[in-house]
Amino acid sequence: MSAQQAESLPGVDRAVELGLTKPEYARIVELIGREPNEVELAMFSLLWSEHCAYKHSKKVLRRLPTEGDRLLMGVGENAGAVEVAGLAVAFKVESHNHPSAVEPFQGAATGVGGILRDVIALGARPIAMLNSLRFGHPSSPRSRWLLDRAVAGIGHYGNSIGVATVGGEIHFDPSYESNCLINAMCVGIADPNRLMRCAATGVGNRVILFGALTGRDGIGGASVLASAELGDDDADKRPTVQIGDPFAEKKVLEASLELIDADLLVALQDLGAAGLTSSASEMAAQGGVGLDIDVARVPLREQGMEPFEIMVSESQERMLAIVEPSKVAAVLEVCERWELLASDIGEVTEGDRMRILVGDDVVGDIPVTTLVDDCPLYDLAPAPPEQGLYPAPPADLPDEADHRDTLVALLGGANIASRRPVFQQYDQIVQARTVRRPDEADAAVLALPVGEDGIRPAIAVSIDGNARRVAANPEGGALEAVLECAANLACVGAEPLGLTNCLNFGNPEKPHVAWQLINSVEGIAVGCEALGIPVVGGNVSLYNEGPDGPILPTPVIGMVGEMPDATKSSSSGFTTDGQAVALVGPFVPNLVSSELAARRGHAPQGELPSLDIGAVIAAHHAVRDGVRSGAIQTAHDISEGGLGVALAECTAVAGVGCEVTLPEFSDAALFGESPGQGFVIAGDPAAIASIPGARVVGTTGGGDLVVSAEDGASFSVPVAEVQAARDGGLTAYLP
Amino acid sequence: MRIGVVRFPGSCDEVDALDACAMVADSELLWHGRTDLDGVDAVVVPGGFSYGDYLRPGAIARFSPVMKAVADFAAEGGPVLGICNGFQVLCEAGLLPGALLTNSGLRFLCKQVDIVVERPGTPWTADCEAGERLSIPVKHMSGRWHADEATVAELEAEGRIVFRYAPGDNPNGSTADVAGVCSAGGNVVGLMPHPEHAVDALTGSADGLKLFASILNGGDRVGAAG
Prior knowledge:
The complex is a heterodimer. Chain A has 26 helices and 28 strands. In chain A, helix 9 (141-161) packs parallel to helix 11 (246-261). Chain A starts with a helix and ends with a helix. By secondary structure, chain B is an alpha/beta fold. Chain B has one domain (2-218): Rossmann fold (3-Layer(aba) Sandwich). Chain B is built from five helices and eleven strands. In chain B, strands 2-1-3-4-11-10-9-6-7 form a nine-stranded mixed β-sheet, sandwiched between helices. A two-stranded antiparallel sheet of chain B has the order 5-8. In chain B, strand 3 (42-45), helix 2 and strand 4 (80-83) form a beta-alpha-beta unit. Chain A binds chain B through residues 152, 155-156, 159-162, 245-248, 250-251, 338-339, 423-435, 437, 447, 456, 566-567, and chain B through 9-13, 15-16, 19, 48-49, 51-54, 107-111, 137, 139, 141, 194, 196-197, 199-200, 202-204.
């Protein structure tokens, strides 16, 4: 059937209203041999949305490596998992951008809730949360409101459920003014022998829905909010934002883990975007079975809900389980003990039909594969932009400012200042695993249970992105983001094991956005191959555009690494006087798309220098090994703001100054960036001399940061001034 | 010595408290629905968000069946420690004086603070010296302890202010820098900081372990104290 023929079908207008295209509708009609009814159309509109079907990104994502020696569970499950010290470490990052742009508190809170459930569905206990946030410049009142409320929402959910928020990053750029980004990452641990899969199996097994009541909230969230650009009428979309209840999720968490421990479940899946429709179809598709779902048995929050509303509701804090008939009573009992509703709403059937019933009446009947697998996948039409896509930001730092004043201004800028006003709002320590809290080291360190050898292993986790560099060069910038994340792990002595990514981009139907997406994925793939790690899962968020254009291309990288001994870690700051300060890594700093360039009013464009990946990885190894052996006590990667800012940050942590001498004193040498490729380290002078490639530049001590050039030029800043500048930068916007 | 740790729906720090107790004694979780305490020698009411902190922190948990048993146990002089949300529950239950209000900064706050032991000799501070400083984290939204002037004066006079935040370290604006108080008998102690998150130098500090270790020495000193 052609799109023209579809034009004449009675249901086509409704289909377009729900976000499908006319050709897509024609294809649905062709596949099922008739026009879908209201229930079926609602289900198609969600499962064939960008958010669920990845129709503009699936082909691109095939480039990413997904296999690894330590991989226990990979792409296609609710979250990925790698093996560490005999445990499964599950993790995934996901976006909740559009809901947060509309209602930041609930949008961010339910973003946290959603990613938690992905990890819970694996049978893992969530042990840590991280987040990556992007807002317009904080001088804009709307951005400050979004920041304030999103942070409060993240804290509200994570704190209440008892999962530590241990890390994250925030970046401000005008391109996010009307389209903020809220990416949340969850890490969990499980017994590898008890990892749950989501495949429904066993004809005759029961389908149990447990957790919160089903209401009208979030209807159409995936198709209406997550798969279209934001516009001026966003306030009208507020009813499509879900409302979170962390108390309900806490009970869902404890009950789920208890059910898995007692071996009562065949499969488990969370209800997220597209609610019951998505969960049930995914479970059936993975298991190669059919499902009967009786919506009359779904406990409802409000009266008079239509079958299609029940199927697409995005009410939070719900899980779907497949249970053998003989174990249903035991499952219901555990749920009752946790004061959770649980209902037997259906059955696993032979064949591949997804049937929706109201009692005995069939109100929807579609092949599962049609719903899940037959959505058309589109080829992108990439083209590099002919000129810069992003306007130059307003300059607020004069070119003629001297090095000292420039450094202090950078330290106090919103993108570099201390994140303390934000992370103090998060419980960083619950579950008693947090060895390194935010601001103490470049990556968070979480201790695992003591091993048989009496040594306590640990994992290190980090999340990073550097969208301005990606805007200048999508492949190079994305590669740098991967390297920067790995560098953070190296700083605490951890070896990367796997990566999760959240690809936040604009409208992929526009050639330059397609170009950004394809090349960023290439950069991530190159980074993974260099590090020898797989992508274990992730999320794509497209159509992040406001009236003023697309966001900066923002691939966000989350990484988990292994540490054999939790006690062998580093600090990101100088700890004591008299230690040698050295630089490590093939660091080629330049000012393209740097923080200094932005402050001076330059658009994010220009050539990034090529990098020697082999030498970068060797530097990571040298730092990691040095931290593990105890030779390195301080390790800090050189990132935004360059070497000058990195040195200043090292002095600020414990108030220990330093004196260093650099070969030259140019803006590029002091403030140029080269993410993931250089480190500042410190330790006992003899020990530092043993670190391969370390170039000693000075000594720790005193109350000042003193930087000299070999030609005799010099400047100094009291550490107290460094600390005051860092502490004030965000506080000004988060009083 | 066996210490019971109450578990409400929404408790978050109960396992950490259980582990801290296990460093000094036997320990077990006590489900909120039970009406007895399984014969334990001491009780910890842990932190978290019991019943989602709905209505008011601690306001619903105090009606749990287990809290009746805790109240009876406390009335007989049994040692009870309320931490954070547990402190809020004990105040709501009338076992401790004062109330916990929203932080003066109006935000949730998680940070390491120093507290000063004002009253050694309770079952939970028997191992501490008067004036001793302990580095213990706080993490709460509603931790601003408040009581009227007469009550504060009475508590001061009776030596029932057990912990104060060190000068300049009051994170929530509590009246008279109070971080923790005790019952008239001294056996029921509540505090906002989390000693169970300060039992291992690897994760920040081991100063909080003293509170749990105290129960071994101080369990018998109930009534004698004060």
